[in-house]
Each structure stands twice: as C-alpha cells, then as structure tokens.
Write the structure tokens for this entry.
Amino acid sequence: MRRSNLRGYKPSRGAPQHLKRVPRLPMETTGADMNFAIPVRPLARRPAVLEGTADPNASLYPGKPFSLLLPLLTRSVSLLTLLLQDGAVDVELASAAIALDPGLAFGTLQLANRDRAEGDDPIWQLPLAVVAAGREALLQLLQRAPRIECSGNAAKQTRLCRLVTNAVARAAAAHLLARELGNSMPRKSYLSGLLFELPAIVRLAAPAISQAALLSTMCHTLPAAMVRAAMARMADDEQEPPGDPLLGIVLIADAVLAAEAEPASLTAALEELADSPLWHCWPATGAGQRNFLLGRCCEMANWAKANLHGLDPWEFMARLERRNPWE
C-alpha cells in the first residue's frame, strides 16, 4: 500500500507514463492511506445528461441530497479517468487534476459529503475528499457529467472556459495571500477561491436550476460562510467586513481579479483595495505590505491564467507552492 504525502500538493513521483500520452486539450491535508485495489468495472457508455442536472432521481448517491452535475473540462475527465484506473490511486495527482476544474472539484466534494450528518463540518480538503468520495463514485461522476466543450454554442463554451480560468486565477491568488499572511490554510484558501465562481457557472450552464436548489446543494457541501459570500456576490449585495480570515482572503483575491479586468484604473483600484475593510482580520498589516501583496496577487493571477492550459495539473500545483511561480 502506498502512503501519500499529504503535506502538500507537490507530487511524490512524476506523472505515470500513460498520462504523458494524453494530448493537451483546450481550455489539495489530512487523510489515510488510499489504495483502491478493487478491480474497475468496464465503463459503460456515458448517458445523455442535461447540463447542470439537478434531478433527485438522477442522484449519484440515491437516497441522499441530489447531485448537481456541472460541465467538466474534457482534459480533466481524461486525466482523472486514467488516474482512477491505476491499481493504487495517487491522491496527490488526482487532487491536482481536480483542482483545476471547479465543476469537478464541486462534484468531488458533493460525493465526499454525501453521508454528512446535520451539524457536522463538511469535508473541505481535496485529498481527503478524493478518499471519502471513492473511486467508483468518482468514475460515475466522470461518466455522467456533461463536458464544457459540448455545452451549446461556441459563445457559451467560451464564457464557461473564461469562468473556469477566472476561478483558477482567484484560487491561485488566494493561495498566495494565505501563505503570506500566515494565519490561514493555503490549500483551503485555494479551494475556496476556486468554488467562489460556482453560482456564476451554474447560472450560465444550467439557468433552469432554481436558486433554492443551488443553495441547498451548496449548504450541504460547502462551509456556510463561503456559501453566504458566494450567493451575495452573485446578487451583487454589499457584504460586512469578514470576520473569517479564509473568507477575507477569498474576497481580496476576488477584488484583485475585478481590478485586473479594468487595466486603465488598476493602480487606483489596488490602492483603494489596500485601504479596504477586507483586511479587517490583519490589523498589523500596514498599507505598504498590503500594496506589495496585491501586486504579487496580480502577478500570480496572470501567471495562472497564462499557464492553466500549458502545464500539466501536477506541475501547475507544484509550482504554485513556490514563492514566485512565475520566475
């Protein structure tokens, strides 16, 4: 049985040889030993699934809260399918593949929390979520979820890919902030930043899904503070200064992305952000350090956008642990 190094994203070994033959397509810890030694049944033909399925009868885990099947990137599906067919699943490599696809990350967390009792904290770390979800359920998810590349017209596909790119860029900036500020968990911050885009993805991919259905699924899967913040962002509501450092980090990273979208006013926007109440949890962080961190967040977000499709997931996540991945 292979013991995973659950202290970081950096893979303990290189990508398996058969993964290196997967073409590039457009477009994180606690836990126990993980060794899925049960033979994999042949994969059946993937049935047609409505984009953003929210049908209780189509649940990945009957008798439990329904599964919201969001569109996935074909590249993520191909890589994770190959990884899950190994005799012993490398949770680090699997987590890296999942971490670059918000739809796949949310699906994995749904499966990991399918037996969560009311009042229990949700599983909120990717390596542990991969273990809790189980190989068979993950393979079902990969078979049944729709693909972004098959999501309606070209304009819709482009917008979905842009949302995925923004989600990864925000996650990378949140990871950097958490590491530099020192009192938050970088990997949880990354995951929070990745899934902050979730309501926008659902609204585009599956507009027929009601807000109540989305809220129900998110509340069963994600921390309550993140659900409230993500839903407030979608409704463009004003938010109180965050008392949770994790939430503050994600909101700062999100504001950096918003500032980056308006290059002409970027400098002024970052100066205003440096004086924002979002820094409520870090009163000892002065204006100079805040401006320095915001500049590095911009560099990180731009690096993530530029390398999301060019680097293998495990290389992307390993470089994310460096102080300056762009160097």
Residues 1-13, 17-58, 62-66 have pLDDT under 50 and may be disordered.
